[in-house]
UniProtKB/TrEMBL annotation:
Family: Belongs to the bacterial CoaD family.
Organism annotation: Sphingomonas liriopis
Site (Transition state stabilizer): H19
Lineage of the species this protein comes from: Bacteria, Pseudomonadati, Pseudomonadota, Alphaproteobacteria, Sphingomonadales
Reactions this protein catalyses: (R)-4'-phosphopantetheine + ATP + H(+) = 3'-dephospho-CoA + diphosphate
Cofactor: Mg(2+)
Protein encoded by which gene: coaD
GO biological process entries: coenzyme A biosynthetic process
Designated name of the protein: Phosphopantetheine adenylyltransferase
Length: 168
């Protein structure tokens, strides 16, 4: 029997409770879940890729199942092929996510029809959470503890303080 490998890609800057929900649920669907941490040229990351990988590794350490955290800087379908994945796992929060993800899934299927995209709806309580919004709230000194784990909250707040000192 072949191992079912799934890839859950993202920037995870920072990893949120919404991401963690998808990771927990996605890990139950496959034998091995590869969390692909990538860069997005249209986003300005708060944390380096190495920092994000370390944070994600720490956050998933207690989740049951085989979970690997791997950096990638290539087409998602090339990364999936390299990892031996047959499934891409994507989280959906709202209709706007669906439109973008649907288009991406169609493009990815054209590139590599051997890999399926599986959409998981975010838990209703976690649907509004977005890394971009978490960073914005933190930059203005707002409370982010409802959106990220306590450890991630501390790291984001500390990074905002360092960035504030550099900006002064």
């Amino acid at each position: 029997m072949t191992e079912r490998i799934g890839v859950y890609p993202g920037t995870f800057d920072p990893v949120t409770l919404g991401h963690m929900d998808i990771i927990r649920r996605g890990a139950k669907l496959v034998d091995r879940l590869v969390i692909g941490v990538t860069t997005n040229p249209s986003k300005s990351p708060m944390f380096t890729i190495d920092e994000r990988m370390a944070i994600v590794r720490r956050e998933v350490a207690d989740i049951a199942g085989a979970i690997d955290v791997v950096a990638f800087d290539s087409l998602l379908m090339d990364f999936a092929e390299r990892e031996g994945a047959k499934v891409i796992i994507r989280g959906l929060r709202a209709v706007a996510d669906f439109e973008y993800e649907y288009q991406m899934a169609g493009m990815n299927q054209q590139i590599n029809p051997r890999v399926e995209t599986v959409f998981l709806m975010a838990d209703v309580a976690l649907q509004p959470i977005a890394s971009r919004l978490v960073k914005e709230i933190a930059m203005f000194g707002g409370p982010i503890g409802r959106f990220v784990t306590p450890a991630v909250c501390e790291e984001v707040v500390a990074r905002v303080e360092v960035m504030g000192r550099r900006g002064s």
